[in-house]
Every structure is written in C-alpha cells, then in structure tokens.
Write a structure and sequence with these properties.
single chain, Glucose Oxidase, domain 1, 8-stranded mixed sheet, metal ion binding, Zn-dependent M28 family amino/carboxypeptidase, TAT_signal, M28_SGAP-like
C-alpha cells in the first residue's frame, strides 16, 4: 500500500517546483499538521448550528426550503470571516415533493415508502384488488412475466431484483395495472426512485421484504393507495470557496452536500460531511502556505439526484475542468453505528473503476485512517454521490463515509465496535436523523482524515496525477470521459438516498 507523501518530502517538492507555479497571493501562516488541529467539539458545534437551523425552519434543511438557505448563509459567513473567496452560484431544477401518502391492504394500514417520481393517485386515492406477480429470475422485468397473470385494474405486487424499478412499473402499466407495490428482496427499507419524472407510469410504493412476503398471500385483497405529490421548479445555491493562495491550474477540490431530506434535520446525512469539511477549511484558512489552491464546495439538491454538483461541473469549460487536479467527497461521516469506508477508486473489490488516479486517492485515505489505528474498507465506487459528475468528465476522485442503511456484519463490529445486524444509520432519511444520531468519535476521526489528505494534496498531487503536462492531462481526461460515458450511458443521476433497482 502506498502512503501519503510525508510533509517533509512535500515541502521539499514544493520548493523545487515553486518556479512552475502561477502567481499567487502571498500566504499567511498555516498549521504544520492540519489534522492535529481538528477538534471534535468544534465540528460538533457546526452540527448544533445545523440542528437549530432546522428547528427554526420547519424541521428540515431540504434544498429550496428556508432551512437550506439558512444553512448556506451560516457556511458562507464562516468562510468569509476566514478569508476565503466565496461565491454562491444559483441553479434551477425540478424537485419532487411528496405531500402525503397512505397504503392499506385488506383494511390494514401498511407501511410503505413512495418511490421518488411516482405519479400521484387521483385525489382521495385509488381502490383496487391486489394481484401478485409470480417470482422468477427477472420478476416483472419482461412482458412475458405477466403471461398467465391478469393484473388489469389491479395494484400488482412485484419482487425487487434484476431491473430498475422504473422498468417494473412501466411493464406493469403496459399489462394493465393501476398501481405497483415493489417489495425488497433483502432486509431493510426500500428507498427507491423511478429515476426521473418522465419515467413514472403508475403510482408506485416500496415495502420491506417482510411486508411483501406477507402480502404475497393476500391476492384479491382490497388495496387503498393514496399518493399526493408534485413537481416544483426550485432555484437554490451551491457554496464555492477557494483559497487565495496556491496554483489555480492544479486545484484540489473537496466537497460535501449541504442539503438534507424533507423528513428531518439531516444531521448525519449530511450535516456531518458539511461540518467536517467546514472545520477543515476554517483551520486551513483562506491564505495558507500551499502549492495548490484548494476549492471547497457545499452542494445543493444532492438528495434530488446530485443536481448541484452536476450542474456545477457541467457549467465549467473543458479548460476549467482541466484546472481541477482531483475531487474528494464526504457524505455521512458520523453514522451512529459507524463503519469506516473509503471509495474504491480502482475497482479492486469488483465494482466500477474511476478515472486514472482514483485508486491512489483510495490508498491515501486508507493510509490516513491507518495513521489513527483504523482499518478502513473499500466501498463500491458507483457514482451515487456528488463525485458522480466529476468522474464522468475524467477527474480523479475519491472520499470517505461511515455507512448508510446496510447492516453491519459481525466482522465489522469486531473490528470497529458497534452492533452487528443493525444498520450503520438506523435513522437514515428519517425524522430521527438529529443530533442524537451521530457517533462523535467517528466524526472526529473522519474529519482528521479529511484534513490529512486535503493538506497533503494542497502541497502535491504528483502521486495522483504524475508529472503531467497540460496537454497530457487534456488527452487523458478526454479519453477517460469517453470511457465513463460508455459505462454509464443513459443512466439517470441518483443521489445516495435512493435505489434505482
């Protein structure tokens, strides 16, 4: 495993390369060891601020809502006081809002989650019998799955698996169903999305494996389904802050999404990532003694499909994208039943591989956590957080998180502590994601890891990028963007909070 270059070596390298740097603002004093300056209490203070902001603004910090705008103002004020150049570029998007929903089967209230972008039912809901689609290797993924099963005028129960939820409800609609209930094929809640507004054909909800298996024995029971949802054009903001020192043609970029879901204050998801990033920026200061400029970003509308980060990257020219040496992302870094995960940029665990250099970013984060005695694990690099558009255009990327709704294994509990068989965040996307939903030891460790790696890259990105000329970087980025486009062709942007299939 390669480790992060020592600060002594970085300092020597920076001195030898100084003549090649662009003209920059004179630097102020910077901490010799940024990670050592990180104090968990200071990070927690930002969480308290975000909680109070949510409490004073309808209980949430969702993009387009007053709580998000107040969160932006809080971050911007802190950064400007620390001497950063700060902008808040606006963007517009179509947001999906679920106003109300209910589901009952056989007269019994049934817990379910509306799939994002599901169409609404008529006002007052719909009533129809339940039909059950037989389970096979591709349940509900092919029109022939409905041979012998008449679902006309029914709400059809379909098992998850083998294809996107959008495909399942589209084929169900073609077969005559008036609604769909998709049940999980693994333990846990089913937070699904149809991908975009144009995909929705019939009202669709997701239920747990346990609920679905119980419903499978109730064919013919009366279903009452009521979904009232709407699309609304929302204008909101990102926050972009850059140091006044360092090369502006080899920028180190670090980001976290600032928004939460409408259901709660969004403290672990993602006030923790925002707070850790903010405290790292404040300790670094706006004019540190660095070789490379550092650009920090707090993204809006991640929960609506990575909108803020995607629009930001797409707003850059190819030359402006070339100015970004790499991007690192932090989404949920204080999960209450915490794990320690690093994005698997080289696909060594069998998942997708990121642009060249992403594997080294993984190794550097693993090394940074190992310095604290933490054996982190690689996590699939699937583009389902705000690094997605960066890797799509060939920018090396990486980052860390502490786990989402997956269950902690016995081996992980033995290694990291916590409780096996329980989700890393049992309050994921729920009203309970508040100040009580944070492992503050994990939060401090992860923030120290952020500071360690960002400071190292602020001095040198050679291990990630090599000694590239700008022409070489341009050729590599163009080639890798083409490869990434081929591997993700026509896939909708989906935030980490929802599953497509």
């Amino acid at each position: 495993m390669r480790t992060i270059t020592s600060r002594r070596a970085i300092t020597a390298l920076a001195a030898s390369c100084a003549a090649a740097a662009l003209a920059v603002t004179p630097a102020g004093a910077a901490p010799a060891d940024l990670a050592a300056t990180i104090d968990g209490d200071a990070v927690n203070r930002h969480l308290i601020a975000f909680q109070r902001i949510a409490d004073q603004n309808g209980g949430n910090r969702a993009s387009g809502q007053p709580g998000y705008e107040a969160s932006v103002d809080y971050v911007v004020d802190k950064l400007r006081r620390a001497g950063f150049d700060v902008t808040t570029p606006e963007f517009t998007y179509e947001a999906y809002f679920e106003d109300s929903s209910s589901l009952s089967v056989g007269g019994q209230p049934t817990e379910g989650d509306v799939m994002e972008y599901s169409p609404s039912t008529p006002e007052g809901g719909l009533t129809a019998p339940l039909s059950v689609l037989p389970v096979d290797d591709t349940p509900g993924c092919e029109a022939t799955d409905y041979d012998g099963t008449d679902v006309t005028g029914t709400v059809v129960l379909i098992q998850r698996g083998a294809c996107d939820f959008a495909v399942k409800q589209q084929i169900a609609a073609d077969a005559g169903a008036v609604g769909a209930i998709i049940y999980n094929n693994v333990e846990g809640a089913l937070n699904g999305t149809l991908g975009d507004a144009d995909a929705g054909r019939v009202p669709t909800v997701g239920v747990t494996k346990e609920v679905g298996e119980a419903l499978a024995g109730q064919a013919g029971a009366e279903v009452q389904l009521d979904i009232q949802a709407r699309l609304e054009t929302v204008t909101t903001r990102n926050v972009i802050a850059q140091t006044k020192t360092g090369r502006t043609d080899n920028v180190v970029m670090a980001g976290a999404h600032l928004d939460g879901v409408p259901d709660g204050p969004g403290i672990n998801d993602n006030a923790t990532g925002s707070a850790g990033l903010l405290e790292t920026a404040l300790k670094m200061g706006g004019s540190p003694d660095v070789e490379n400029a550092v650009r920090f970003a707090w993204w809006g509308a991640e929960e609506s499909g990575l909108v803020g980060s995607t629009k930001y990257v797409q707003s850059l020219t190819f030359e402006q994208q070339l100015d970004i040496a790499l991007y690192v992302n932090f989404d949920m870094i204080g999960s209450p039943n915490a794990g320690y995960f690093v994005y698997d940029g080289d696909g060594s665990t069998g998942g997708p591989e990121g642009p060249q250099g992403s594997g080294q970013i993984k190794e550097d984060f693993l090394a940074a956590m190992a310095e604290q005695g933490i054996e982190a694990e690689p996590s699939e690099f699937n583009g389902r957080s705000d690094y997605g558009e960066f890797i799509a255009v060939g920018i090396p990327s990486g980052g860390m998180h502490t786990g989402v709704e997956d269950l902690k294994t016995e081996e992980q509990a033995a290694k990291w502590g916590g409780t096996a068989g329980i989700a890393f965040d049992p309050n994921y996307h729920a009203a309970g994601d508040d100040l009580s939903n944070v492992d503050r030891v994990a939060l401090e460790r992860m923030t120290k890891g952020i500071a360690e790696v960002v400071q190292a890259y602020a001095q040198s990105t050679e291990a990630v990028n090599g000694m590239q000329s700008r022409e070489e970087r341009a050729e590599l980025r163009a080639a890798q963007a083409t490869l990434m486009a081929q591997s993700t062709a026509q896939a909708p942007k989906v935030g980490h909070g929802h599953d497509l299939s």
